[in-house]
Write a structure and sequence with these properties.
Radius of gyration: 23 Å
Number of strands: 16
CATH superfamily of the largest domain: Response regulator
Strand order of the largest sheet: 9-8-10-11-12-15-16
Largest sheet: 7 strands, mixed
Shape: elongated
Order of helices and strands: HEHEEEHEHEEHEHEHEHEHEHHHEEEE
CATH architecture of the largest domain: 3-Layer(aba) Sandwich
Distance between the termini: 80 Å
CATH class of the largest domain: Alpha Beta
Strand content: 15-25%
Helix content: 40-55%
Amino acid sequence: MKSAFSRPALLAALAAACMAGAVHAEDIKFGFAAPLTGPQSHYGEDMQNGLTLALEEANKKGIKIDGETAKFVLVSRDDQADPRTAVQVAQQLVDEDVDGILGHFNSGTTIPASRVYNEAGLPQIAMATSPEYTNQGYDTTFRMMTSDTQQGAAVGKFIVENLKAKKVAIIDDRTAYGQGLADEVEKAVKKAGGEIVRREYTTDKANDFTSILTNIKASEPDAIFYGGLDAQSGPMKRQLVRLGLKAPLVSGEMTRSDTFIKLAGDAADGTYASLAGVPLEKMAAGKDFAQRYEARFKKAPGVYAPYAYDGAWNMITAIEQADSADPADYLPKLAKLERKGATSDHIAYDAKGDLKEISVTIYEVKNGKWEMVETMVSQAN
């Protein structure tokens, strides 16, 4: 008896059946926002690459959520490192019904955006390090890195005890990040027995610091701390050397970059910078992460990529444990999360959403390259 189906019709029916068998659960969407254009775009790109690698690996694993294979999708937005734009972007992501937020990057954008996400009940894991972020009392805020409260305490102590600097001048760029870190360093310097001989201010758009540095030179500091970005600390270090200031420049993780070295040029040597976390080669699975990152993106990971990668996996793991991408279901799992990651064997959050493990590394530029000076790892009280 001849089949009632023609060959084309039969093939179409078989294809439809195969497609039906391969249907995924509805996409699980993670919102991401960071500076993807402008002078800070290298930070945003590094962070985005770490997130992308995590989501691609999760999709290859075929994770089941509520009985169906999950597909994790990154919905990216450029917040231009601008607080007002960040709030607009945050509302856009909420309106797109994302299931969680991985970002923002800057403290100054993260803090106002976090209020939008909290009102929507969306868990947010951000790179932002200003203490204000997790001090707001929201149960939706979590970190990818050690906070500036923890980092500043370590840096201030290092300046006084290791650099033997009793007189310290401080400059910050008036951003939530720069001012917040500088405030914490000032507290720590005083606690360690040092004296703040000058406190100056600039902006994250400035490139001429001659008058500020001239004022500081008159105070004869033993060290100068700058809270701000590499786009400013690079030219600042060149001008510092040109003015004959012998005091070493110390800064935070935004300065610990290849961009700083390029901008500072021959003046870069002797600069110190702190970085929340430990060097990639000393991370729990840093070497393996670096190999996979380089295979995917054809370049070495920057400072923030491994922390973004772990942040994404923290959210994915919480969703997997809850067997649900509903924020109300997986938020409690995220708050109680304990897992081994690329950056640490002991990833867990305290009641505020800060990482329980405190790790800070100090680097120095020697012969045009960042070299590790000291790493400090401890547990939060």
